[in-house]
């Protein structure tokens, strides 16, 4: 029986295997001091919302000192708190209150790059070519008669060359913004410093780490550096075009040595610290990051990217369960995060619509059905929460928040907007601060205006408006998470063999069956007691865009 019912208690080393983790984007969660930016004290004051929601852990996106060239992922000090967000004492208070409420705390670790304001990079600029300080980063002379051309054709994920020239003529690598110089993970100073960082936060009570750009640390820096040619090298689309593990800077085999070293740090604590990789790589490669002697879990983004199509989703689910099983890990599921269009909006777009193009239109083209988007979002969430493994929620999705697609150009903060020459609008629309109350200058986010403007429609989505409101999305999440905790059993599912076309139907245990109708017509509701539905059910039919949890009859 011990294997049948997983021990997910806070003291269990396996708490993460089927946990629900709630992502907090600190600058947009709650503002306690009234400066318009969310802060650590604001998060602490709102932790009762997360405890009442029923999640197991919160994941904090970066709260480190940063000039916000990339929303906090340009880190100037990996072992401190941005003064605008609080102090280390505030962080300790947050962790203490979270633990008192039974919540684990996961923090972002950003190992691929630093801010250009990091003391190491400032030292590198002062020290000049060939110095030990420059060896911590990736500096190279340029090509051309006078070194006026970048060392390679490598491209930044945010657009343009991945190289920036310094006043002394050398170039440094930045796979993201120019303000984010890449670290050289062949350098022992870098490796030792991050071991220190992992221990620093673990010693302060952090339970786990989300590893940013986990597949980007190792790079082929052998001379001469090689061009990527036409690999489409700004992202994971390049990986199938080269032998696995051999791309110049994505998902190289050498990266796993780094994470095996980190695992020794994690396992020195009781319970061991957990980790999850943000690795945009194909499933078989993703399993390597999730091995138990490395990070233990890796994000599966295929579920997020899948169309609202039963056959495609079934394939994604089946493949992810197999991938996780091969690693000895559990699957991960996510529908929204700080980098993508919120799923309540994404799922309302007509098939084949590029969310980036819709954003660029300000949300006007194509025309969309907001109600249908929310209906599908609720169904997709209940489906996700029924799957074996860990579910990662993004702040505000429990309110059904849509993407704010019509932010005016003058308020945009994401560097993608400028670096792509206004071709891609960026990620600000999913980072608009949360509404807590139905009134106030920022709907309860803080005492004053928020750093990104909230639309007036946010009042109807506020926590205050939805609490104890029958049928609200917030109450659906609360009920689902409470029920999920009671129903969890094992780490597998069994597909129902005779499910109608367009329907996903599986059982998790004798007491838990999940059925989702992704088709265009109602289908017969299977026999059994209805435990929960993503929308009200009438009669004996399961409407389109609806998920139901059942207790099957014997």
Automatic annotation (TrEMBL):
Domain of life: Bacteria
Xref: SMART domains: Aamy
InterPro entries: GH, GH13_cat_dom, O16G_dom_2
Domain Glycosyl hydrolase family 13 catalytic: residue ranges: 23-431
Signal peptide: none
Gene3D superfamilies assigned to the protein according to its UniProt record, in alphabetical order: Glycosidases, Oligo-1,6-glucosidase, Domain 2
Family statement drawn from the similarity comment of this UniProt entry: Belongs to the glycosyl hydrolase 13 family.
Protein name, entry field: Alpha-amylase
Organism: Streptomyces incarnatus
Top-level taxonomy: Bacteria, Bacillati, Actinomycetota, Actinomycetes, Kitasatosporales
């Amino acid at each position: 029986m011990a294997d049948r019912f997983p021990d997910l208690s806070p003291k269990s080393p396996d708490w993460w295997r089927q946990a629900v983790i709630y992502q907090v984007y600190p600058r947009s969660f709650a503002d306690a001091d009234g400066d318009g930016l969310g802060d650590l004290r604001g998060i602490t004051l709102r932790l009762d919302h997360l405890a009442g929601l029923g999640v197991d852990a919160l994941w904090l996106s970066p709260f480190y000192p940063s000039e916000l060239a990339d929303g906090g992922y340009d880190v100037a000090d990996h072992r401190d708190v941005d003064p605008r967000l609080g102090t280390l004492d505030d962080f300790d208070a947050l962790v203490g209150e979270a633990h008192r409420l039974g919540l684990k705390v996961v923090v972002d670790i950003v190992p691929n790059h630093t801010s250009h304001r990091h003391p190491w990079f400032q030292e590198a600029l002062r020290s000049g070519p060939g110095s030990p300080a420059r060896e911590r980063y990736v500096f190279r002379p340029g090509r051309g008669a006078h070194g006026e051309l970048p060392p390679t054709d490598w491209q930044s994920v945010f657009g343009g060359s991945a190289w920036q020239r310094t006043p002394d003529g050398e170039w440094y690598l930045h796979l993201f913004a120019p303000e984010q110089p890449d670290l050289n993970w062949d350098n022992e100073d870098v490796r030792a410093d991050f071991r220190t960082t992992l221990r620093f936060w673990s010693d302060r009570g952090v339970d786990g780490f989300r590893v940013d750009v986990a597949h980007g640390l190792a790079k082929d820096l052998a001379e001469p550096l090689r061009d990527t040619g036409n690999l489409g090298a700004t992202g994971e689309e390049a990986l199938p075009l080269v032998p696995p593990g051999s791309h110049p800077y994505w998902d190289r085999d050498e990266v796993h040595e780094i994470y095996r070293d980190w695992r020794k740090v994690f396992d020195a604590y009781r319970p061991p610290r957990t980790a999850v990789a943000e690795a945009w790589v194909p499933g078989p490669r993703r399993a390597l990051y999730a091995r138990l002697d490395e990070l233990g879990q890796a994000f599966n983004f295929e579920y997020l990217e899948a169309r609202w199509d039963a056959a495609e989703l079934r394939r994604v689910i089946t493949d992810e369960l197999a991938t996780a099983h091969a690693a000895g890990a559990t699957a991960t599921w996510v529908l929204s995060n700080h980098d993508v269009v919120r799923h309540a909006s994404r799922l309302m777009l007509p098939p084949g619509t590029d969310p980036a193009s819709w954003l660029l239109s300000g949300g006007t083209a194509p025309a969309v059905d907001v109600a249908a988007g929310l209906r599908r979002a609720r169904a997709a969430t209940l489906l996700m929460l029924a799957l074996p493994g860990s579910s990662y929620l993004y702040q505000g999705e429990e309110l059904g928040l849509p993407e704010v697609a019509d932010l005016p150009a003058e308020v945009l903060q994401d560097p993608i907007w400028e670096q792509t020459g206004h071709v891609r609008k960026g990620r600000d629309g999913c980072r608009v601060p949360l509404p807590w109350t139905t009134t106030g200058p920022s709907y309860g986010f803080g005492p004053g205006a928020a750093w990104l403007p909230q639309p007036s429609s946010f009042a109807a989505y506020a926590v205050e408006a939805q609490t104890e409101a029958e049928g609200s999305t917030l109450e659906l999440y609360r009920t689902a998470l409470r029920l999920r905790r009671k129903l969890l059993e094992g780490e597998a599912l069994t597909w129902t063999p005779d499910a109608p076309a367009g329907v996903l139907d599986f059982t998790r245990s004798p007491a838990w069956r999940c059925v989702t109708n992704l088709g265009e017509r109602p289908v017969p509701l299977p026999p059994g007691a209805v435990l929960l539905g993503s929308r009200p059910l009438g009669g004996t039919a399961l409407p389109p865009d609806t998920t139901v949890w059942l207790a099957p009859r014997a």
